[in-house]
TrEMBL record:
Pfam families linked: Amidase (PF01425)
Record domain Amidase: where: 42-484
Superkingdom as given in the UniProt entry: Bacteria
InterPro entries for this protein: Amidase_dom (IPR023631), AS_sf (IPR036928)
SUPFAM superfamilies: Amidase signature (AS) enzymes (SSF75304)
Protein name: Amidase family protein
């Protein structure tokens, strides 16, 4: 099958065709300015790849629902640019974006992967999608997720199991694994995920991507199907740190409908792209959390990649500070998270607002229906049982506050700019197995920001001829996204670890 970019009848064909693989916002916009690319061609190229590799071929199964208006939206972008050639078309003009299917897009069903939410047709865009459209982006598709964003393997009753394009026997992480696998396989240019515990950074780690969990209050959650709003965030999943910065410029901002965003607006710089400094590691002090590494044979593939990556980072001028403090990720997972205590309250409030579209009115109704994936049934039952357990809930909130202060004190005392560790202590789980030993809890329990970048690949084998991706996580102080972007960009440029998956090569 030929790519849309080789078709002279669909746009300019006299110049070298645009290379869709690993495209960035910058390369796409440069091609548009040079007359080598239209927004329609860009959308058509991604649709061709989705047909070839997501719906056929390896059947990665990341795209839950295509936007039927995507080509028409792209044509409108092209017409607007042609009518006003001297006017700035917007920072995301014509850029196709994949949106996790627990975020509302006007005129497109939002199911969160659950049959109980079939028919949930949003009249309006979520705040984040409004921002994307205003910037000129094209919503290309809604992506699969772990049902109700309540697991780490990206399997749902509505759409089944999404596969990891680097190793089809493995999951793509989760819960935003549909966005992760889709961006990794070049089914869209930018991606949006959500993160309650690990859910943006896990797919980034598993798919050789960049995933940013922003500080709580930087990005609005209006229009999100919630799991627990103390921890729920929305953020970018992209192939490069530069594209994450461009995307964050668009989606960060105050939303009166999400009051917590009033805390973030004073901290937003003119542009996050100003911090894309290839020399950004020089003089940085990075704390390496030793307890966030495993020490068994099952951890060696990740540890090998991490040690190599950290050595390169150190060679770029960063000072690595060993942090042996007793911060145990498993203990934090067991004692600080509150989403199961909040899920019934927050999801019930959402369902009541959507009453005209869905039959269920509460989490209890969803559980009683019996129409939930086996992988989330226990989680949902637990959330129903914990609803109203005020004493334990308050105790966990207090632990979260204590953890915030402990980390700030640690970083101040050791003069640490960011903490670093593998996002996952072992390789991403095989299909059918639970996701084990992820380290995302530090950011989710505090509301502080964290970014994952490609750290490298494990040794190749028969199932994964490139190996399996391993993600490196940087964790920072509240609203330190500029610093994290600076460190992550410099590390990305030094490591050069990102590779497109063999399972979804360029079309002819």
């Amino acid at each position: 099958m030929k790519s849309a970019f080789e078709s002279k009848s669909d746009g300019p064909g006299s110049q070298a065709p645009f290379n869709l693989m690993e495209a960035t916002v910058a390369t796409a916009h440069a091609a548009m300015r040079e007359g080598r690319l239209t927004a329609r061609q860009l959308v058509r190229g991604y649709l061709d790849r989705i047909w070839a590799y997501d719906q056929n071929g390896p059947r990665i199964n990341s795209i839950l629902r295509l936007n039927p208006e995507a080509l028409a939206e792209a044509e409108r972008m092209d017409a607007q640019a042609a009518a006003k050639p001297s006017q700035d078309p917007g920072p995301l003009h014509g850029i196709p974006v994949l949106i996790k299917d627990n975020i509302e897009c006007g005129g497109i069903e939002t199911t969160a992967g659950s049959p109980c939410l079939l028919g949930n047709m949003a009249v309006e865009d979520s705040f984040v999608v409004q921002r994307l459209r205003r910037a000129g982006a094209v919503v290309l598709a809604k992506t699969n997720l772990h049902e109700l964003a309540s697991g780490g393997e990206t399997v749902s009753t509505v759409h089944g199991q999404t596969l990891n394009p680097y190793d089809l026997t493995r999951t793509p992480g989760g819960s935003s694994g549909g966005t992760g696998a889709g961006i990794a396989a070049n089914f869209g240019l930018l991606g949006i995920g959500t993160d309650g515990v690990n859910s943006i950074r896990s797919p980034a780690s598993a798919n050789s991507l960049v995933g940013l969990r922003p500080t709580m209050g930087l990005v609005s959650r209006t229009g999100l199907v919630p799991c627990g709003l103390t921890q729920d965030t929305i953020g970018p999943i992209t192939r490069t740190v530069a594209d994450t910065a461009v995307l964050l410029d668009v989606i960060a901002g105050h939303d009166p409908a999400d009051p917590v965003t009033s805390q973030g607006s004073p901290h937003i710089p003119p542009s996050y792209t100003a911090f894309l400094d290839p020399e950004g590691l020089k003089g940085a002090r990075i704390g390496v959390l030793r307890r966030f590494f495993g020490n068994g044979p099952e951890h060696q593939p990740v540890n090998t990649v991490m040690l190599q990556a950290l050595a390169i980072i150190e060679a770029q001028g960063a000072e690595l500070v060993a942090v042996d403090d007793a911060i145990d990720p498993e203990e934090l997972l067991a004692t600080t998270l509150v989403h199961h205590y909040e899920m019934a309250h927050d999801l019930d409030a959402y369902l009541v607002r959507r009453a005209r579209d869905v039959k269920v009115r509460s989490l209890k109704d969803i559980v009683a229906s019996g129409n939930v994936h086996a992988s989330v049934a226990g989680t949902l039952t637990t959330a129903v049982a914990l609803a109203g357990n005020e004493a334990e809930y308050r105790e966990r909130l207090q632990r979260q506050q204590a953890l915030r202060q402990r980390l700030l004190d640690l970083m101040d005392a050791r003069r640490i700019d960011a903490l670093a560790f593998p996002h996952q202590r072992r390789l991403v789980a095989p299909v059918g197995a639970p996701q084990a030993e992820r380290n995302g809890v530090l950011a989710s329990a505090t509301g502080f920001p964290a970014i994952v970048i490609p750290g490298g690949f494990s040794a190749a084998n028969r199932d994964a001829p490139q190996g399996v991706p391993v993600g490196l996580e940087f964790f920072g102080r509240p609203f330190s996204e500029p610093e994290l972007i600076r460190l992550a960009y410099a590390a990305e440029q030094a490591l050069r670890a990102r590779r497109a998956p063999h399972e979804a090569p360029a079309l002819e």
